Structure formats: structure tokens, C-alpha cells
Amino acid sequence: MFDDQIVEVVYNDYVMVTLKGIEDVYNILDSVTEDKKIAKLLIIGKGTQITEEARLGIIEANKLRKDMIHAEAIVVNSIAQKISANLYMKFIHQEYPIQCFTDIEKAIAWLSKHISKSLTA
């Protein structure tokens, strides 16, 4: 947990993210958040890529958890990662707010704004 409302998921540099890896991450997230509504800060390491199967797994996992997510910020390091993130965001954007960043501080500020907005709604 980054703080009591933001969960930070960091993928190391030069990793190929697989469906098994995604399943492991979501099992940990579920145990850490204990059914608490959270915002997600997803930080993608340099050179890190994701398989198509894993990308589809993320989309389905997040759709199942949509009522438990205030918003999601994805921090990328390259144009290729941004293209992949934009594709993912097309599938998720109707479920909850999601945005791509290259700066962690801006991503956290954006998430904080959405948490506040969600709590006052």
C-alpha cells in the first residue's frame, strides 16, 4: 500500500508480464486491500512488456473489481508502453477513471483528486 487508499503495483525493469504473474498480483492485491475501495498506481519498469494473454487477464480482473477501484494511474517509460497502456485504457475507461503518466508525482496527484471526488459523491 502506498498509503491507506492508494495501492502501488511496481513491475521491475525488463520483465515479461505473464498471465500467471497477473494472477499472483491480483491475489496479493485482494489480500492487502481486504475489500476496501482503493486507487491503483501501476508503475511499469523500463523495457517491461506484457503478453496478450496477461493484458486480457488484467482487463477481466479489473472489470470484476470495478466497484472497488476509485481510479487507476499507469506510469510508463516508453512510447511502446504508452501504446500498450492506451489500448488497455480503451477497454477499462468506462468502468472507472484511468490515465497514463510519465511522472509518478503527477499520477499520485491525479489519483488523490479522484479519491476525493469519489468519497464526496
Distance between the termini: 24 Å
And the CATH topology?
A: Transcription Regulator spoIIAA
Number of helices: 4
The CATH architecture assignment turns out to be 2-Layer Sandwich
CATH level-1 class: Alpha Beta
Percent helix, as a range, is 40-55%
Whole-number tally of structural domains: 1
Give the SSE string: EEHEEHEHEH
Number of strands: 6
Largest sheet: 4 strands, parallel
Class of secondary structure makeup = alpha/beta
Notable traits:
single chain, 121 residues, Transcription Regulator spoIIAA, two-stranded parallel ribbon, 4 helices
What's a quick, concise take on this entry?
This protein has four helices and six strands; from the N terminus they run ββαββαβαβα. By secondary structure, it is an alpha/beta fold.
What does this structure look like?
The chain has 121 residues and is an alpha/beta fold. The chain has one domain (6-115): Transcription Regulator spoIIAA (2-Layer Sandwich), CATH 3.30.750. Helix content is 49%, strand content 23%. A 4-stranded parallel beta sheet has the order 1-3-5-6, sandwiched between helices. The chain has a two-stranded parallel sheet with strand order 2-4. Helix 3 links the parallel strand 5 (69-75) and strand 6. The radius of gyration is 13 Å and the shape is globular.
